[in-house]
Design brief:
It contains five helices and four strands; from the N terminus they run αβαααβββα. The chain has 172 residues and is an alpha+beta fold. Strand 3 and strand 4 form a beta hairpin.
């Protein structure tokens, strides 16, 4: 009886420790992610905001804490004339400090061939350049993705958001 109790306690403790270890190995950063603008001649202001919010939802779906839209917007409606899509590195660092964010994501989209109308066209390739600011390293990292245009922006935005977050998820 005593032996069985010790074995049971050992097994329960081992399971609890393995679950804790597994959770801590795959835990997302505790710092919030600040999703800033995506500069593109192919997107108007409303479309760009929808893309930003799609990226935020994807971060949330993957377990990342984010800086909410209203927190970001409050900083841009206090009389300052900053363009959320054209921030300098020092401004991004400052926003991360102001909003208590550990990461910032800012980017651009352009047609792969350098030509195009002011819209995302189906089956045309676009280069998405993303810059990530990592506060813990005080450094910017950049990566590019090639993404095909879709027949509607909803699918294009979702594909782009999934690929961006997946790429960031794989960074060391």
């Amino acid at each position: 009886m005593m032996f069985t109790r010790h074995i049971s306690i050992f097994v329960i403790t081992a399971l609890a420790l393995s679950l804790f270890a597994r959770e801590s190995m795959s835990a997302k950063p505790k710092e919030r992610v600040l999703v800033l603008g995506v500069e593109s001649k192919q997107l108007n202001d409303v479309q760009e905001r929808l893309l930003r919010e799609t990226i935020m939802r994807q971060f949330l779906a993957k377990g990342y804490p984010i800086v909410r839209v209203m927190e970001i917007e409050s900083l841009f409606h206090d009389g300052q004339k900053r363009q959320i899509r054209k921030l300098k590195e020092d401004e991004v660092r400052g926003l991360c400090n102001d909003l208590r964010a550990g990461f910032a994501c800012i980017g651009s989209i352009a047609p792969e061939d350098g030509k195009g109308v002011n819209a995302i066209e189906a089956e045309k390739n676009y280069i998405c350049t993303i810059r990530i600011y990592r506060k813990d390293r005080d450094a910017f990292e950049e990566f590019t993705l090639k993404i095909a245009g879709e027949k509607n922006l909803y699918r294009f935005f979702n594909t782009m958001a999934e690929r961006i977050v997946s790429k960031i998820d794989s960074l060391p």
